[in-house]
Amino acid sequence: MKESDMAKNSRRQLSLFLKKNEASEFESIRKTFNPDQFQLIACHVTVCREDEIENISIGACLHFYILTLFL
Questions:
Q1: Which of 13, 16, 33, 56 gives a 20 to 30 Å CA spacing to 66?
Q2: pTM: predicted TM-score of the whole model, two decimal places
Q3: How far is the C-alpha of 48 from the C-alpha of 31, rounded, in Å?
Q4: In terms of Cα–Cα distance, which of 56, 21, 26, 52 is closest to 41?
Q5: Domain coordinates in residue numbering, the chain
Q6: What region, left, alpha or beta, does residue 48 occupy, with left being phi > 0 and alpha being psi -120 to 50 degrees?
């Protein structure tokens, strides 16, 4: 996928990702039942979408100790 296509199809969201060593059972289910999504993104839970994170405090997210910010 070209970088311009990625920007057009990207979104801002706050997501929680499972550690790879803890996600293997979930990933095998995802690979079987939703292979397209499996190829796009690792096993995760979306907490907030674009309109819900406009005014979010990154400091509040640091309470979880692990924060990966994808923009």
A1: 33
A2: 0.56
A3: 24
A4: 26
A5: 13-68
A6: beta
Q: Write down the residue that tokens 């640091």 correspond to.
A: 62
Measure the CA–CA gap between 31 and 41, rounded to whole angstroms. 11
Take residue 37 and report the two structure tokens written for it: 């999504």
Report the 3 state secondary structure along the chain: CCHHHHHHCCCCCEEEECCHHHCHHHHHHHHHHCHHHHHHCCCEEEEECHHHCCCCCHHHHHHHCCCCCCC
**Residues found in the chain:** 71
CA–CA dist 1, 8 (Å, integer): 11
